[in-house]
Amino acid sequence: MKFIVLPCDGIGPEIVGVSVRVLEAAASRFGVPLVLEEDKVGFDSLRQYGTTLREEVLQKSRGYDGIILGTQSHADYPAPEKGGRNVSAGFRIGLDLYANVRPARTRPFLESNMKAGKTMDLVIMREATEGFYPDRNMTRGWGEVMPSPDMALSTRKITRHCSERIARRAFELAMTRRKKVTAIHKANSFHMTDGLFLEAVRHVARDYPQVQLDDLLVDASTAHLVKEPERFDVIVATNFYGDILSDLASELSGSLGLAGSIMASDDLCCAQAQHGSAPTIAGKDLANPVSMILSVAMMAQWVGDKQRNAGLRKAGDAMTAAVDRVLENPATRTRDIGGTIGCQAFGDAVVRAIASV
């Protein structure tokens, strides 16, 4: 198995480094040979090459079995014309990584941010290549303009093709879980765009009669996530709604730092933590690497299933189980979730746990 490793910005190098060590331990346990090759994106790339994402890196990533991408400090990048290319968006659009898969679950041994007795175990399937994001909804140019200093306009793009394929991935996933899909929309206001998305989801649903489909307005869905999170299994949403709801769900379940995330096309998978780059704690060994470790585990599971590599699938499963084993012990938690240990020590504990899960 050959993976490209791109540490990127802020705490990225720390949490990616820890995650790679855990992956190596899990792969070794199950006899999976690994080749890991590192390259630069983000500020390191900007300093050396004048751009945060070289086209060379993007294109050569197609030749790997998977991509491990660290956190980016996109808000601090210079303008795109000065080299500040959005790294995540570049990969999503350039490699058609349209499915952003974001699970959120409670753990009985960790405090959540929900009402007492409430539990959560859901996955948000977020379409990642179009929608309200102006940097990825035009073939040429930008989806936002300012006709005057006092007027700004933004263009949203929704296509049947992209809506149907993310819906199909959601229904496929639901078939392996509790067989329920909830489509999130605002079709009462966005009649054409959300209406098209909803129409596409319902069309795909016909191929999965075993799966229950319901739909919710995006504003109502936030209330239901808080009030009755157990009603959700797989949520399918356009880009903007999925981005917001996944942060809400992960924080409700315990912390944004406890949820993994992958971006996938039909042929390629990229692991990237759900959270940001946290530059204020970079290099201080304070970062929580759980989200990144779980993202790499999800990538290993995805690639293992795709390539029918049982060893890699088992390695991903072991990584997930080992993280939970370590989190069960309050003494081996990072500070953000009530513990005292640092990023590297947490990684050491997970590597040790790999041997016994």
Please, could you describe this protein's structure?
- The protein is of the alpha/beta class and 357 residues long.
- It has 2 domains: 1-98 and 267-357, Isopropylmalate Dehydrogenase; 112-253, Isopropylmalate Dehydrogenase, CATH 3.40.718.
- Helices cover 39% and strands 16% of the residues.
- The protein contains 11 helices and 12 strands.
- The strands form 2 sheets. Strands 2-1-3-12-11-4-5-10-8-9 form a 10-stranded mixed beta sheet, sandwiched between helices. A two-stranded antiparallel sheet has the order 6-7.
- The longest helix is centred in the first third of the chain and has 18 residues, at 12-29.
- The mean pLDDT is 95.
What's the arrangement of secondary structure elements?
Elements: E1 2-6, H1 12-29, E2 35-38, H2 43-49, H3 55-60, E3 66-69, H4 87-94, E4 99-105, E5 121-127, E6 144-148, E7 151-154, H5 160-175, E8 180-185, H6 193-205, E9 212-217, H7 218-227, E10 234-237, H8 239-253, E11 262-264, E12 269-271, H9 290-306, H10 310-327, H11 343-354
Parallel strand pairs: 1-2, 1-3, 3-12, 5-10, 8-9, 8-10
Antiparallel strand pairs: 4-5, 4-11, 6-7, 11-12
